Amino acid sequence: DETSGGYIDDGKKPRRESRKRQANEFTIIIDRRSGEGLGIDASPEKTGTLEIKSITTGGLVDRWNQSLSEDSREIVRPGMRVIEVNGRYNSAMQLIAACRETEVLHITIMPDAQ
Question: Annotated region Disordered: where (predicted)?
Answer without folding.
Answer: 1-24
